[in-house]
Write a structure and sequence with these properties.
Layout lengths: L4 E3 L8 E3 L3 E2 L1 H4 L8 H13 L4 E5 L9 H12 L8 E6 L14 H15 L6 E4 L8 H13 L5 E5 L3 H10 L4 E5 L12 H8 L2 E5 L13 H10 L8 H20 L4 H11 L4 E3 L6 H9 L7 H17 L7 H4 L5
Parallel strand pairs: 3-4, 4-5, 5-6, 6-7, 7-8, 8-9, 9-10
Antiparallel strand pairs: 1-2
Helix pairs in contact: 5-6, 6-7, 9-10, 9-12
GO molecular function, one term: oxidoreductase activity
Organism: Malassezia caprae
Protein name: NADP-dependent oxidoreductase domain-containing protein
Amino acid sequence: MTIPTRYQGGSASHVPVGCMGLGLMRFTWTQQPLLPDKEVFATLKTAADHGVTYWNSASFYGSQDPLSNIKLLGRFFAQYPEYTDKIRIGVKGGFHGIGDLSRTDCSEENLRFELGEIQKCLGSKKIDIYGPARKDISRSQEETMQTLHKLQQEGLFCHIGLSEVSGATVRVSHAVCPIATVEVEYNPFTLDIEHNDVLAACRELDIAIVAYSPLGWGFFTGATQGAAGEALQKSRAMFERFSGDNYGTNAALANQIAALASKHGYEPTELVLAWELQQYPKLIPIPGTTKTPNLLKNIRGAHVPLSPELAAEFRRLATDLSAQVAGGRYNAYLRHTLFR
């Protein structure tokens, strides 16, 4: 059974995508050996065949080669051209050069170069959504948007997306030219967009929210204990919520979600994703996974019917957990890049 569709915003308001997308980062931005294409492609085909048609990538999702995630997509569409028109690709970039995350650079010269390199990797597949991963504070947002709009009009990509921006930046940007998506973290530990004007701005302007880390970087997968929990904590040790005593505190909080899900006969992933989908008609969670069984488990969340009573119970719990979570979303060095 394919999942229901949703629409993006701005110039993409007529473009349907699955109500749940797929985050591709972990396929290539990892310290583990990369999976063989055959295994990755099987997972991607399963996603597409179930209606998961919005895939999220970036020009820096690679531990060795920053463009390796884009190149992976290029190989997939070359081998399976029948999926080219079925899938919408969202790509983030806007850092100086290719893969230099030390500073943003939304100059026309830099964005034009980056888009050219991305398109070379994708081959015949068009860049559907493109935008900077972080706000370029070295120039006005109006200038950045004018540059993006110019490159969009030249046909270098189809629609504009933003990432980790404030509500004020969303409004300023949309006044220059239409925004299709705003990508930001959203999960029961991280309800920030409900209180800082981002969700309100997107509702007002009819912009889709692409919700990354909808399962709390793994806290809401039900795999927080034993060997799986140790592996999860080790792989995310650079994040405050996974470091030191914070991990134990947050794992215990996440277990309350798992207990609620079990009480109603669901996996925690199913319940979390089903609840998130209810919060805004244009919210598109993009859980990331490299395993087909986990993908199918996530997809089931799109088919969970939440009663008003269960939705209210979940809301009370999420509000409580978000107030108790230990540690910030990122480390202190990176937090200054958020919601600019």
